[in-house]
Amino acid sequence: MHHWSPWLLAIATAWAEVTLSPPWRQTLLTAASAAGRPLQAPHRTPDAGGTPVVPRGKAVVPAWFPQAPPLPPPRGEVLHVATVPELFQAVEQVGAGGTILLADGDYNLLRPVVLAGKQQITLRSASGDPARVTLRGQGWDHPEPGDDLLHIARCAGVTIADLTFADCRSYGIKVEAENAPRDIHIYHCRFRDIGVRAIKGSAGRDPEVRAVNGSVRYCDFENTRIPRPNGCSAATTSRRLT
C-alpha cells in the first residue's frame, strides 16, 4: 500500500475533484479515506441544462464547488498593517498565538516576506476576502530569479489565509522543508501569474528533515500568460483546490 504524504494527498485529491471523471475521482477519495484523511467529493446540483455553474470573475466555476467557511475572529495578539514597511515589521514582532491582519490594498514587495521561528501565528486579510488584499512581486518577466513573495521556515502552526499572491518571477509561497516546518496551512488564497510555482516545497540533503503535516484548502490557481522557454515551469491554467 502506498503511503501518501499529507501535502501530496491534499493537492492530488483536490486536483482529482476538479479534473478527473467520477470513477477515477472516487478511487483517489477512497485512498484518502484509507489514509486516515476522509474527504468528501463535492456535491453536484443537477439541472436541465447540465452541470450548473456560477460566474466568478472572468472564470466560470461549477456551482458544486464548496465555499470557504470564514475563519473565526483572531484571538491573542493582533497586529494591523496597511503598508509594506508595517508588514515587514509585523512579521518580526508577532509573538506566539498572534495574528497579522492586512488592510485592503496592494502590497508591492521588493523582497520576500520571511516567517522564521514563529509558533501558532496567522497571516490573513482583515476583510476575509482574498480579492481585496494582494501581495505582488516584481512581475512575471522580472529578469532575476528569487522574486518570491513569502518564505516559511522553522515554524510550527502557521496559517496563511484570505490573500492573493500575484505577479512574481519565481515562487508565491515557499515552504522550506529543509528547515523542518510543521503544520503549515494555506487557506482560501488566490495565486495569479506566478512564474515558476505558486507553492514551492523545497528540500535539503537530509531526508529526515522535512515539512510535517499541513494543508492547502479552498485556493485558486490561475496563470493568464505563457511562460518563457528559459525554465519557468508554470502553465496557462486555472484550478481551484478545496
Overall description:
This protein has 242 residues and is of the alpha/beta class. It has two domains: 1-67, no CATH class; 75-241. Helix content is 15%, strand content 37%. It has three helices and 18 strands. The chain has helices at 6-19, 22-34, 84-93; strands spanning 53-56, 59-62, 78-81, 99-102, 105-108, 113-116, 119-125, 133-136, 150-153, 156-161, 164-168, 171-176, 182-187, 190-194, 197-202, 212-217, 219-223, 237-241. Helix 1 (6-19) packs antiparallel against helix 2 (22-34). The longest helix has 14 residues, at 6-19. The two termini are 25 Å apart.
N-to-C span:
25 Å
**Total beta strands:** 18
Low-confidence stretches: 16-22, 35-58, 232-238
Query: What characterizes the major β-sheet?
Result: 6 strands, parallel
Taken from the alpha-carbon principal axes, the silhouette is globular
Radius of gyration (CA) equals 18 Å
Structural class computed from helices and strand pairing: alpha/beta
Helix and strand succession? HHEEEHEEEEEEEEEEEEEEE
| Strand residue percentage | 35-45%
User: Which oligomeric state applies?
Assistant: single chain
Fraction of residues in helix: 10-25%
Tally the helices: what do you get?
3
Whole-number mean pLDDT: 78
Number of discrete domains? 2
**Which strand order spans the largest sheet, edge to edge or round the barrel?**
3-4-7-10-13-16
